[in-house]
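INFO  loader      accepted 1 record
INFO  loader      residues=627
INFO  predictor   begin
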Amino acid sequence: MVLAVIGLLLVVGGGILADPAVLLVGLVASTASCLRRRLPVDLAVPVAAAVLLAASITAGLAAGLLHQDLLKAPRALAAAYLVGAAAALLRSLAGGPVGGPPPTRGAGLLAYVPAVLALAIGLLQSVSVSVAKSWAFWGTDLAHHMTTLKIVQAAGALDYDVSGYPRGLHMLAALASVPSAPTGVDGLMAYDLRLVAALTWLATGLLLATGASLALRLARLLGRPARVGVLAGLLFGTAALLTNTFVLSFVYFGAAPSLLAGTVLLLLPLAGAAGLLRAARLGTVAAWAALCLVCLAHLWQGLLLAPVGAGALLLLVRVPRLTADLRSRAARRALGGGLIAVAAAVALAVPAVAGLRQVGGTAVTSAAGSLAGEPWVVLVPALGTLVLLLRPLRHAWASLLAGSAAGLLASGVVVLLSSGHPADLDQYYPAKLLWFLTILLGPLLAVASVTVADVAARSCWGAAGRLGQAAFVVRWTGASLVVALAAAFWLPYLLGVESATAGTWHRAAPDQRQVPTAFPDWSAYRYELATRFGPDDRAEVVVPYLVANASSDPFGTRVVSELLAFLTDRPEVLGGRATVCQEIEQLAGDRPAVVLTQQPAGSVLDSMAEAGCTGRAPVVRVSVGQG
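INFO  predictor   done
INFO  writer      dumping tokens
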């Protein structure tokens, strides 16, 4: 009942405050309260998010096929959400059985502290433009997600004939943008900034909570003490929030769809670990795999082989008893229902996959780009922990986890071969796919790491106890040395140089732009620059050219271009990778233009002369200090 009450309050509060992120959290809570009848709470919440996503995708594709706008009646949508939340509360008040206990209680809830922190940060983004813009444009992708969300909000449907970019989460976010999304572009940009920034951190929190739940359940299934599971869950979340490469590549790039995709990858193993999926219930497994298939197709198409690999391995393990299973009429009926669900999922996945083909299919993996770093230091030992699954492989939870990993490895091979550089593991899409594999195996690695540390600590503690009066000194000296070594060798790797975690607070201080030695607040500066040169200020087409300081703001031109595209509906320019004349031609054509740059105006005018477009447009120089 608690989930239902929270859901109704958040749905009402989100409507009153015109806060779509709060409304969306309320819808997840209300849906989870209904699923609580059959699922434990740690599984009900991520499944509720997946169900809402799949429902939004289905509705969006249907609307696109019928050329309808789902958002043309926002008040009706808002009323439907309110009625649904109220109905979920009434159903909870009626009582009845629940779907099983949570994996831990009391002190064990410490495993969820990192997830709660991320969720709180997400809700903070939803209510403050200042907080969101202080970090959201450090990288390039969040601005692109805002533009994509605006397109979906305008269409009120999913149409992959326009673009092959996966937009499932954008459809869900658009449906939550009721009843009063602003109509003016300036107001809409601030609205969508808060929404996408909030979704990024909310998806992070959901991923950390789901990973912690899987760690807790894996520890129990592998026969480890309860404390190992709690510490493993805490380690998974803490390490993710402190790992510089993960935070930069997923959170600071605003990769909310990728973060939610990570949660979906964990659903099948978690459902198996919770005892809901068994090898003898292939129909149920097929239905769950179908849900994951729909979600992944519209979040990150390259992950589609994960649920396929999970189902295939489970089926392979079950082959010797398959004939006996199918002798039962109920089993055949359940399997038939599961296969129907899979067929429906494939049909819903086809538009996203077909849309990808429009931009080159798997060859798009050769596109340039880079992540903050590769996950090898974590991924290699994580792959080693798969040996822990060999003995229990006949159980569904082990087969689903190992099969998902095998599917992602197969996807990695496809991506590498399609890139044209199969030996280059540093490419953007192969590296990101390896990060997904790291996320999938992260809970298992956390359990293995804490188990080794627990055994070592208990052995050393017991050995020191034989020293009599010196035991106290030896024990705490040893503990201090372990902490010191972790601080010296492990934390620097996690935090990195100019860590994203620590850098947040520097970038969040606007007045630090005036301090030469401080890290500039590039994120807020880029947002302010775009709004200052938006359509309300100039009649000319604004062409950003080398807005960035090449040494310390490498993505600035692209981010400002994307934000100006949001405000003007004009295409993003090349971001300083072409001559200034090419930039003007692509963005302005024959229309009047003005060049926005952080370079000396004279040097840009000289570049225009060299490229053959002298006098084509005036040049306006901006600087960090003008923000």
